[in-house]
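Practice problem: predict the structure.
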Amino acid sequence: MNDKNNNTGATGAAKVVTSTVGNTVGGLANTVGGVLGAVSRGLGETVTGATGGLGKPLGDGLANIGTGVEGGVANVAQGVKDAGEWKTNPK
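Answer:
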């Protein structure tokens, strides 16, 4: 008998709860990461637009930081979702 895929009883109930919590937390993290990324890119574009070529490196830096934060949060959010669904990371 393969207990690894057993989704009945207490195991099934635990998977439902952890999946719901994982998906909720992961979704919220994606939302926050998306907002932070958008805000940083907007600030970067504003700095570049207001200062022209002189402020472009700073504007680009702000935009890149936001994109990096957004990507990092998306990876963490996916890990939370995977953990909530009891997925393993095959290596």
